[in-house]
Design a protein that fits this description.
about 130 residues; alpha+beta; six-stranded mixed β-sheet; 1 helix; 6 strands; globular; disordered N terminus
Length: about 130
Amino acid sequence: MRALCVLLLAGPVWADPVSVPSGQEISFYDVVEDADAHEGGLWRYRFLTPGISRDGGTVPVETALADIEALCGTFVVADLGRFDVAPDRVVITFMDRPVVFGQATPEATQFFEAFLIEDGKCIWEGF
């Protein structure tokens, strides 16, 4: 089993709103880093996005996925620029409520997308 750690990069979790093309309400939640991320591993950027909820949400999956791609090219790339070493890959997660990483939460709505990071650009990998 790989060791994981959580990096809190923006003060208190879900404190900072993030701007996306659709204008939906999004807040940065946290980053979960694989133990080997400094050797080309994976970081997971997680965002609270209540509008994607399957129970009363108003943001369709296509809109959410376009916002995920936009966030990779803006928020994630800028954040990675703060570090001397960065992962080769990131996964961006939208979740309609706080979810403990790795814990099954069937009532939560979550969307995920994976990206390679090359030359400061996000390249969609897809799941």
